[in-house]
From TrEMBL:
One of its GO terms (molecular function) is 3-isopropylmalate dehydratase activity. It catalyses: (2R,3S)-3-isopropylmalate = (2S)-2-isopropylmalate. The gene is leuD_2. It holds the Pfam family Aconitase_C. GO terms for cellular component: 3-isopropylmalate dehydratase complex. Residues 2-123 form the Aconitase A/isopropylmalate dehydratase small subunit swivel domain. Belongs to the LeuD family. LeuD type 1 subfamily. This is 3-isopropylmalate dehydratase small subunit. Keywords: Amino-acid biosynthesis, Branched-chain amino acid biosynthesis, Leucine biosynthesis, Lyase, Plasmid.
Amino acid sequence: MESLTYLDAVAVPIAAINCDTDQILPARFLQKPRSDDFGKFLFSALRFGHDGAEQPDFVLNKAPYRESRIVVANHNFGCGSSREHAVWALYDYGIRAAIAPSFGDIFFINCLKNGLLPIVLPEAVVLPLLDTLSASPGSRIAIDLPAQTATLPDGSAHAFEMEPFAKACLLRGMDEIDYTLSHQDGIDAYERSHAQPY
């Protein structure tokens, strides 16, 4: 898992409300091993036709959105089933942050567990941003995780909330297991000091 501190990148607009995990990653790919590149399956039913050819009208098939590392989405992004694989698909494609007015609850948690930063901003900010990104392909967003701000193409900076432990893990590029193991010496010392004398 890569650490995330600052990210200045092209953002792709996904304007559909209630874009669910089955759209992000269709169920037929759930049997693939994690070692596979899930990025090639991202939005598969929308990106590709039945013959496997790219659908030219889908946003990720257009330059410069192909190079996007940030998704800007509408309400309830990642709703539906709890498949962690949907986050793997975004991450493997290169997406490191998602901005939306709201997320599916389990999807939000899965993002944090897999090194992808979910940012909640008000609808009054996100909806005009979706229009801007559609009208001006290649527009960039700058995210400063230590300061918890996102600077939009118009130069406006918006603060976002972040749970401290999740923030620490993202900054270090760790999941909960990695974080626990990083304190192994302290854990061992505690166990030794509290061991029964008999």
